[in-house]
Amino acid sequence: MMKRTNTTYWNPGAFIITLAMAAIFSLPAQSLAAKTSQPLDQMLSEATGLFSKGDYKQSLPIFREVLKQNPEDKTALRHLLIYDMEIKEPYCRAGAAAFFEGDYKTAAEKWQEVLKHDPKDMRVSQLVNEALVLSGRNAIDTLYASAGRLLDKGRNKDAARELGKILEIKPDESKAQEMLEKLKPSKKEMSTLNDLYAKAADLKSEGKFDLAVETLKKVLEIDPTQEQAVSLIEAAKKSKFEAMSNKARDLYSKGDFDEAQQQMARLLTEYPENKELVGEIERLNEALSVMDKADKKGPGWEAIKVSMFNYISPFGNPELSIAASQYALELSSESEAAQKVRQFVNARIDPWKLKKKGINLGAPNLKAEDLAKNMGMVDQYLTSALNNIYERAYKRAAEDCDIVLALDPKNLLALKRQGSAYYLLNDIPQAIASWKSATIIAPNDKELKGFLDMARGK
After folding, report:
1. pLDDT digit string (tens) for 429-451?
2. What are the angstrom distances between the C-alpha of 439 and each of 83, 106, 451, 457?
3. I want to staple 427 with a disulfide (CB 3.0 to 4.6 A). Which of 109, 198, 388, 422 is the partner?
4. CB neighbours of 176 closer than 8 A, spacing ≥ 6?
């Protein structure tokens, strides 16, 4: 081991001379058998070319092989000395300086640069090994000190992490193993932990997320190293957020915008940094300004709810929002609420902004002759579905039918065409589901029976 005393100091000159002599006169254990049969001039020419390209790893062994055959060859001696003084010396000096400062990691890195060029330099290899050993010991000592401070503060979980890092560096470190073993819960505590986990699971299934979190925190009080408890706490918090969000969305899907706003306000109190939630609340507030004093009983009210839900919700369909607003106006042309919603949605849903987000705002696939018929929204999308089936755009055809069914849930033709689109997509279970839903509306429809028999392979 390299040590520095009060009277002995690092002598770069002596160290470099030693390295240079070692490089010149310490030949590799295995000679270059393939090169020995070549004339020395040819070997020197090859080595010099490699050296000029900075390929020291290949050139140095050749120069040393030349010296083995002719110890007085000036070309080989000169190149080896140039390598030692200009290439190796800066790394060796920097590594030694770092070593004496106690920065063993940097020392090892600097000396390893030498080994990249000259892997068989045993002297430098020994220095690297010694620095790596001391570097690991330094890191271990630092981690022990950190673990001790954390244990004093009762932060057993964080202390266990530090001890785990020690075992990553040195897996057989018995002290760290013993300390970790002491942090593990007893059999009695394990039984208590299992009971707490079971209780937390029951509370979560009952929707009592806060109580579930508190129960899981008790697990961590007994054993702070329980990573499962940490994960379950995050899962419970996420479930709570989803449950509260879904409740608010259920409210505004039913047209209860005021109650939905109150629910969202409670959510925002607990999750003020959630940007998606903030955006949803902004859209809900905009909807409230439009829906204030709106007639909630007219024939277009259901379509208005569909339109506003798909505008407000982060999972809404902008195309459906537009279609539903138009459908509401068709059903209640004199309704002030329907007129306001139509104007509001058209003004807010910008196709260009959606495109920037990677969303293409769809529209019914209508031909010139279709447009001449002046069809309503439902008929437009039914016609679009048929056109898309003819054009083999089956996925889009199914989406057209989804829009029709959102506007008119009992539309038999939409269910039939939706089933056909899924069948042509080879999604047989979905096709059967659509056609079975259609049989509830038309139980004696022979065409539907034929569709179902075909899908079931009868």
Report:
1. 999 999 999 999 999 999 999 99
2. 88, 77, 11, 18
3. 422
4. 144, 163, 166, 167, 170
